[in-house]
Amino acid sequence: MPPAPSLDNIAELLKNDRRIKLAGVDVDGMLRGKLVSKNKFLSIAADGFGFCSVIFGWDMHDRTYTKELSISNKENGYRDLIAVPDLSSFRRIPWEGNVPLFLVDFLDPDTREPVCSCPRGLVRSAVGRVEKAGYSAMAGAEYEFYQFRAPGNYPTPEMNASATATFLKNNPVEALPPLTEGMFGYSLTRPIHNQDYYYSIFDACEQFRCEIEGWHTESGPGVFEAVSGCPSSLHGLTV
């Protein structure tokens, strides 16, 4: 079991790395981040770095909201927030050559308190109040979703891009070919038709320290369900 990351040992844990991914959660729950050099990361690991507040002022298509928010607007110049790496969130991304990843917490540059629009900060504050009252918090997530095959023989505007987004500009979602046909919840045989993909999802999530407890087909063409649980306190907020 590797030691828990800390300011004292993080340089040693990253001794064979050259680049680090940093990511924060915006108000829509999407990851926004960047790739930085190891030297840059080590220089900001303790005190954080500037990160443009506009990620809390625009939508998932990078369009600023019609009514701008006090945290991010033209008047304050979309000023930087302070993004501080959460060392306890350290993990490696197995599908990206095991590049190191750290989540960040967004703090107000004046008070260094969590900003109100940061989902991680909001959860951290709520968990703090729960623990102060003598309780502990646990969480789990269950996702049911459709899975489709990428439409074949459809032109894409970018090299190596998926044809799906381009296809959906001119076609309804139901025109996409589902990964599996028919209604067959909890099937042991349907996933085997795509077994390399099916098992790789389970294995990659385990390697990423975001383990899946249950992974199966649900009723409906291409419908799958994944269940992930948190066996311990949310204090670390690492997933």
Tell me the layout of helices and strands.
Blueprint: H1 10-13, E1 19-25, E2 31-37, H2 38-44, E3 49-52, E4 80-85, E5 91-93, E6 99-107, H3 119-132, E7 140-146, H4 164-170, H5 195-207, E8 214-217, E9 223-229
Parallel strand pairs: 1-6
Antiparallel strand pairs: 1-2, 3-4, 4-6, 5-6, 7-9, 8-9
Helical content class: 10-25%
C-alpha Rg, in Å?
21 Å
Shape: globular
Q: Which structural class do you get from the secondary structure elements?
A: alpha+beta
Please provide a written account of the structure:
The chain is of the alpha+beta class. It is built from five helices and nine strands. It has helices spanning 10-13, 38-44, 119-132, 164-170, 195-207; strands at residues 19-25, 31-37, 49-52, 80-85, 91-93, 99-107, 140-146, 214-217, 223-229. Strands 1, 2, 3, 4, 5 and 6 form a six-stranded mixed sheet that branches. Strands 7-9-8 form a three-stranded antiparallel sheet, with no helix packed on it. A hairpin with a 5-residue loop joins strand 8 and strand 9. The protein starts with 9 loop residues before the first helix and ends in a 10-residue tail after the last strand. The model is unreliable at 231-239 (pLDDT under 50).
Task: Based on the model shown, name its key terms.
239 residues, alpha+beta, 3-stranded antiparallel beta sheet, 5 helices
Short characterization:
This protein has about 240 residues and is of the alpha+beta class. The chain is about 20% helix and about 25% strand.
